[in-house]
Amino acid sequence: KNEVEQSPQNLTAQEGEFITINCSYSVGISALHWLQQHPGGGIVSLFMLSSGKKKHGRLIATINIQEKHSSLHITASHPRDSAVYICAVRVNSGGSNYKLTFGKGTLLTVNP
Amino acid sequence: NAGVTQTPKFRILKIGQSMTLQCTQDMNHNYMYWYRQDPGMGLKLIYYSVGAGITDKGEVPNGYNVSRSTTEDFPLRLELAAPSQTSVYFCASSYYRRTGIRGDEKLFFGSGTQLSVL
């Protein structure tokens, strides 16, 4: 079983819809990252969370440490939001927690 | 700022050839990483470095080597290329800073290298 599971794997939405992408993990973590990867490969960091909630423009990320779950929400989705969204966790591993464990990503397609 | 610069963007190697993927960052980050991304899989850590002169293996280090002689540069060396090394490679750097009782970290990725070994 992967330490980081994302759902859904693929998501198609109509422009303007509210989008939710989920990330569950099975280990203790010190931080969780949400990343965006556009077709053509570039990866951009969206958020780092260790607790609570963060908002940036139309993007909202939440994390529930007790439930080992995080969600990424996109309000008023737009075709330019079409990308792969990746969840990554920094596992609590004593002295060497420099490593991130990545989910496989959620492919979001927003149609006009 | 240029951020993380990774070269080349594309490369085709023959089995047994060697090459070096270059990575440089101009943000004075201590932490640098090399990942590979295979279709349908999450990014896997090959090697990482927490500062100049310090490197360590990640999850999939076999067939690769790295060096970190300066804060800016973190090249990845492939010796004796094999078809299993066909992948997209990403270099990344990060900062970590403590704000109160919490910390903040941000990752910066290079644009990727599409490598095919035939």
Structure description:
The complex is a heterodimer of chains A (112) and B (118). With 112 residues, chain A is mainly β. The model of chain A has no long low-confidence stretch (mean pLDDT 91). In chain A, the strands form two sheets. In chain A, strands 2, 4, 5, 9, 10 and 11 form a six-stranded mixed β-sheet that branches. In chain A, strands 1-3-8-7-6 form a five-stranded antiparallel β-sheet, with no helix packed on it. Chain A is built from no helices and eleven strands. In chain A, a hairpin with a 4-residue loop joins strand 7 and strand 8. Chain A starts with a strand and ends with a strand. Chain B is mainly β and 118 residues long. Chain B has no helices and eleven strands. In chain B, the strands form two sheets. In chain B, strands 2, 4, 5, 6, 9, 10 and 11 form a seven-stranded mixed β-sheet that branches. A four-stranded antiparallel β-sheet of chain B has the order 1-3-8-7, with no helix packed on it. Chain B is elongated. The model of chain B has no long low-confidence stretch (mean pLDDT 92).
